[in-house]
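User: Hi! I'm working on a homework problem where we have to compare a predicted structure to a textbook description. Could you give me the structure for the chain below?
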Amino acid sequence: MKLKKAVALLAACTMLAASFTGCSKGGDTKDPATETPQTETPADDTNTDTETPAATDEIVTLKWITVGSGMPTNYDAWQAKINEYLAEKIGVNIDMEIVSWGDWDNRRNVIVNSGEYFDILFTDGSKYTAASKLGAFLDITDLVKTSASDLYSYIPEDYWQAVSVEGKIYSVPTYKDSSATQYFVWDKAIADKYGVDHATMNTFATLKDKMKEIKDGEGTAPFVMSMGGSDMVFSTYDQMGAGLPALGVKYNDDTRTVVSVFEQEDVLSQLDVLHSWYKDGVINADAPTLAEAPSYRMAYTAQGWSGAAITTWGPGMGVEAVATQTGDTIVSNDTVRGSLNAIYAGSKYPEKCLEFLQLVNLDSKVRDAFYYGLEGENFEYNENGEIVKLNSDWTMAGYTQGTFFNISKLADTDFNQWDEVKELNANAKPSVLLGFSLNTTNVETELANCRAVYEKYRSELLTGAKEPRELVKTMKAELDAAGFQTILTEAQAQVDAMYK
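Assistant: Happy to help. Predicted structure tokens:
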């Protein structure tokens, strides 16, 4: 099945199971409040047909390194409980390392480049292709079909194609929302107090003066950002799997012209607003160096769906929240690659890793434990098998783990938030490059050098800390010296070869 058929398939596939918020955790959307749980699958509906009890087998321990808000305070108790279940089901114990958002990029780079041992590593489109080609991840093209056959069948074929690198699969994609929708998330009380018109004030440009009014009225920065800034400014550009935001094709450009993204006026105009906000104190002064944004912010941008304001974003801030969509819902290879789990090329237990990932995705008891935490302490089930959250202390990031279609429903919601996700997926506008993935073989060195240049300027650029037009000129000069034009020419040639 061609990936070009993804949009139609997604609408059908999401009807098979009863996904999420914020899979692209880049920049200022790095917030565990971009995940929300709910499903039509009962909590005790486990997949027992494909799992063999391991009572007589050796129990192996798998190391899973992922990102979140740091290690849960009750991790030891949680680990003991989940490991008892995992050992019985598939002969596995799990050892988690939850790296905080602010430390994640550096920690992940060290892991991949040093050859540090792990069994499973969370990754995404920004690093996935490069790490795969570096040899850090195991080629599971054939193994996943035998060691996790039910999982392979459960995840749509197009997802597997979307994560393929030169025809080979190096990760398990997370089956959830495959499209990306951007939102402004508001503390509803603040939005109401200052008369935010959600129907017309839904872009950086239309909110420019209103944010200044809120800052003056409240006496503090309403749009608090971390050092990642807001990647929403370039979210409409397809990066072709290159992992370089400076390179892309506008999702609706029928000419499929590869461009220098940050030189485009639609991107620069948004950066202009961010810079004006930074100068006016709308954005916090420490944004370029702030590792993690606080849980409460009057307003911020995030990827997800509007219902998450009720189920996750609001509870995460401790207030009633409302979300306003900005722009189109888009589906692309990049959106599918927002949440991936890869197995170390040197793992001692690759088959067990896949058995484990299958269980995480298909067994609701396991899925709930990773998503909600320790039963009896972080949550409990009611008589209908629905989730009653006891607190919001669980610090693992649910979008990094597995499908959202097997997470048990929250008891205190009177709507099924996944209906909205299905609708967003079904109506998503496909990128003109849906199905295309750049073969980076001839430009690996140039890409590595250009990524380093982009990372050098990213924080100041995406938080508004520096005048963007001059900063982009400086960055572009260094990108060109690092081989950017070579990459652009190669990318355009490959695009033309496929579509023209």
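For your comparison, note the following. The domain at 3-177+336-430 is CATH 3.40.190.10 (D-Maltodextrin-Binding Protein; domain 2). Residues 1-56 have pLDDT under 50 and may be disordered. Good luck with the assignment!
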